[in-house]
Specification:
Layout lengths: L2 H11 L2 E11 L9 H17 L4 H18 L4 H7 L4 H13 L9 H4 L14 E2 L2 E5 L2 E5 L2 E3 L6 H12 L6 E3 L6 E6 L2 H4 L7 E11 L3
Parallel strand pairs: 1-8
Antiparallel strand pairs: 1-2, 1-5, 3-4, 6-8, 7-8
């Protein structure tokens, strides 16, 4: 028997289960806190940028206002200086902006879901990536994995993924598939005692589809 014929015969005998899995990810909602080294680098970069940057319109107006005030104090001001002095200065605008900022209520980074340790809520750990995992039975073990299920006859891989997702939430989930193409692939062989049984597949080929939750 030729080698190519032998390989074809072996391939024909191999039977794999085709599984579709979903990777449902909530992206970070807020930026994470900087590490100490990152804060040092940021501070250094800001100082360098300030030293090398040109003055803004606001900074130029502040200088003009100071020069006008000096002329008024020395008695060298003309009518235009007096007219401008009666208007709101750049310093007045800056003080009003600082006051408005001080009244702005910043949201807490720690949500109620964080405090209650609600691991089923999307409103937790806002600065982290969250992935949906479910407990499923693989063989005799129960493990935490991405939701997955075997493709049924007549289904496309995406249709199988949509069904798996709906079954995981009893149809109550708002999400969006980001395309038909899978985002990943993985295959593994079943334990030897399962593979040796007649009619059993030798392993599983898992195709992953990327999904984003739709937030109201």
């Amino acid at each position: 028997m030729r080698l190519s014929s032998f390989a074809s015969t072996q391939t024909a005998k191999e039977k794999w289960d085709l599984l579709s899995a979903v990777c449902l990810e909530r992206k970070p909602v807020i930026a994470r806190n900087l590490l100490p080294i990152e804060k040092e680098v940021l501070s250094m970069a800001q100082k360098m940028e300030y030293r090398l940057s040109l003055k803004s319109d606001h900074e130029i107006q502040l200088e003009k206002d100071r020069e006008r005030q000096e002329r008024i104090k020395q008695g060298d001001a003309d009518d235009s200086d007096m007219d401008q002095a009666s208007l709101n200065s750049a310093q007045d605008f800056e003080d009003a902006s600082v006051e408005e900022l001080s009244k702005f209520p910043f949201a807490d980074r720690i949500t109620e879901a964080d405090k209650e340790k609600d691991q089923k809520s999307l409103d937790r750990m806002l600065d982290r990536h969250l992935l949906l995992v479910v407990r499923q039975k693989l063989g005799t073990s129960s493990v935490w994995i991405l939701p997955q299920g075997q493709r049924q006859e007549g289904e496309t891989m995406r249709q199988a993924a949509e069904r798996v997702l709906a079954e995981s939430f009893d149809g109550k989930v708002q999400s969006r598939f980001l395309g038909n193409a899978p985002c990943g692939f993985y295959k593994y062989k079943y334990p030897k005692h399962i593979r040796e049984q007649d009619g059993n597949s030798i392993g599983a080929k898992v195709v992953y589809h990327y999904i984003a939750p739709v937030r109201k």
